[in-house]
Every structure is written in structure tokens, then in C-alpha cells.
Amino acid sequence: MNLSGLPIITATLLFSTEEGEHAAGFLGIPMVIWQVANLVLFLAVLVYFVARPMGAAFRKRQEEIEERRRQAEKQRGEVDRLAADIRERTAKIEREIEEIRKQSVAEGEQARSELAARADEEAARAGREAKDEIARRLTEAKAELRRTAAALTAKKAEEILGQAITPEDRKRLVDDSVEKLRQVPR
């Protein structure tokens, strides 16, 4: 209980009693003293039942706030640590991605050169096969042309002979053939 205001209250009481001796009182005590005593009692009850619990509530609230602040600082430290860990992991992943990209480019270049070499080989092989096929077909075409020419020549010769040979020439040819067969030793 705060007693610093007691001298002021006492001075007020003395001042009021000197002025108002004629003021009405209760049990022979002036009414102002009863009012001051009532006020002091009210303030004492107020301090006892309100100020102390409020002070305790404020202290408890301050302790809760302080605990929350400590927890927040702890969580902030954890968040900072996690953020640093995430930044580190992100940087590591970016480095791995860059390595994979470089490796992919190198593998792509190698695959491109291999495909180009295979394509060149395939083109050369196809060229050789085409030349061989052309040569084979040319040979076949020449042979077919010879057969056709021979057949046409034989047909034309037959026509010419058929027109030029008379029945007498035929008889003479048959006789000559028979004579040659007789001369052949058995």
C-alpha cells in the first residue's frame, strides 16, 4: 500500500476541521474525516483486490510475452538455419543441373558425330549398292537385248529364206542333208 499521499490527506483533514468545526459529524467525528477514512479504506480495498491481482496479471503477461519472444528468437534462429540450408541445397542442385546440362551437351555432340559418321557410311554403302545394282541391271539388259536381237535376226532370216527358197531349193537341201548323213561313219 502506498502511504506517500498520507501527509496530504492529513493536511486536508486538519484544514477542513479548522474551517468547519460546526460541520456535522458522526460519533463526534466530523464528516470530512469519515469521508477521508472511507476514501482511504476504499483505496486500500481497491489496491488489495484490484491492484495486486492486476499487477500479478501484468507480471504474468510480461513473463508470457518474454517467453514468446524467446521462442520467437529460437524459431527465428531455426528459420535462419533452415533458410541457409535451403540456399545451400539450391546452390548444390543448380551446380548439379549445370553439370548434367554440360554432360548432356557433350553426349549430344558425341551422338551427333556418331550419327553423322553412320550416315556417311550408310550413304557410301547405298552408293555402292546402287552402282552394283545398276551394273547388274545393265548386264541383264544387254543380255536381253542380245536375245531379242538374235530372235529378231532369226525371224527376219527365216522370212528372207522363206521368200527366197523355192520348193526345188528345199528338195535339193533335203537331199544334200541325207547324203551327208550317209557319209557319216557309223
Explain this structure:
The protein has 186 residues and is mostly helical. It has one domain (6-150). The protein has three helices and two strands; from the N terminus they run αββαα. The chain has helices at 6-19, 31-164, 167-183; strands at 25-26, 29-30. β1 (25-26) and β2 form a beta hairpin. The radius of gyration is 68 Å and the shape is rod-shaped.
Distance between the termini: 170 Å
> What are the segments in which pLDDT stays under 50 over at least 5 consecutive residues?
16-20
Taken together, the total number of domains comes to: 1
**Fraction of residues in H or I helices:** over 70%
Taking all Cα atoms into account, the compactness measure Rg is 68 Å
Mean pLDDT: 84
Biggest sheet descriptor = 2 strands, antiparallel
The percentage of residues in β strands lies in under 5%
List the strand order in the largest sheet.
1-2
Write down how many β-strands occur, each being a DSSP E stretch of 2 or more residues: 2
Q: Helical segment tally?
A: 3
- Give the SSE string: HEEHH
Apparent shape: rod-shaped
- Find the structural class using helix and strand composition: mainly alpha
Key structural traits:
186 residues; mainly alpha; two-stranded antiparallel ribbon; 3 helices; 2 strands; 89% helix; 2% strand
Brief summary of the model shown:
By secondary structure, the chain is mainly α.
Topology readout:
Blueprint: H1 6-19, E1 25-26, E2 29-30, H2 31-164, H3 167-183
Antiparallel strand pairs: 1-2
